[in-house]
Amino acid sequence: MSNRRKFIQHTVLGSAAIIGSSSLSAKLKSGATGQKPLVVSTWDFGKAANAAAWEILSKKGSSLDAVEAGVKVAEADENNQSVGYGGLPDRDGRVTLDACIMDAQYRCGSVMCLEYIKHPISVARMVMEKTPHVVLVGDGALEFALANGFTKTNLLTEKSKKDWQEWLKTSNYKPGINIENKLYKSDSLPGGKDNHDTIGMICIDANGDLAGACTTSGLAYKMHGRVGDSPIIGAGLYVDNEIGAATSTGLGEEVIRIVGSHLVVELMRQGLNPQNACKEAVSRILKRSPQKAKEIQVGFLAINKKGESGAFALQPGFSYAVRSEKENTVLPSKSHF
Ligand code: SD4
Known about the structure:
By secondary structure, this protein is of the alpha+beta class. 34% of the residues lie in helices and 22% in strands. It contains ten helices and 15 strands. Mean pLDDT is 86; it is low at 1-30 and 184-196. Bound molecules: N-hydroxy-L-asparagine.
């Protein structure tokens, strides 16, 4: 049999197996709402971000405007130590930010390792709208931002500086499971609960158009120049207006290896609902490295064109916020462990 025939046969069998297992697992309850407009975002603090997005969606605004306005809430919140202002620095004490945005026409923009700019998501949108490129990094991204009216801000808050100086005493780099729990504190959450970091937001507007945004300061105490999954189109975020959208959070290196968000969207194309598509992506990480998977967290969040949502994570503790006409809530994600 020719290699090409073998490949096609293998691919078709693989898809059949996935669809077979999906019809079984379709019975698993997902956070589906089947509504438009709908906005979902990662972690408990997504609720405040969803509220800003909802302001736009409920007035028939565009999904693109909604996701930008939504994640800006998290970027500006200094209580959140792993997005934007107040984010924990790298091991050299530099706050470097990653963000990307994608709309319903496969247009996308991204900035990586951007310093001094409070709203990297807006720079990413400007890369998308005003340049012939998709990605700008480091100094080039900063020069572009400054040339387009953004101003320089010191993003290292006293609190984050102190935490970094404390970390320097051991310099032990070990991203732990849900370590981000300690990186966000808000009295507005039930019980003043600790919460998480990176925000990924995906939504569908009243027209049925999808968009997504993802923004982070990345892993605390990373090497200078390290970039995770969040600003990489296909890894931290992907939007296909025919099918759905997905975003991720957790240890970015593992998400990049499986091009996670694109994989989730492709699995939805094969017929899986959002939760099961996220679950299958998580299982790819598990399969590649079952031992390592026990020590890390990765979570995926997805919506489909019908306005259904779902999530799945490696470890318990991942949550996501959902806002629609009927719902304004934070749901716990199902997890493998
Ligand atoms: C990264 N995925 O830089 C981000 C960090 C994150 O929950 O999402 N943490 O790898």
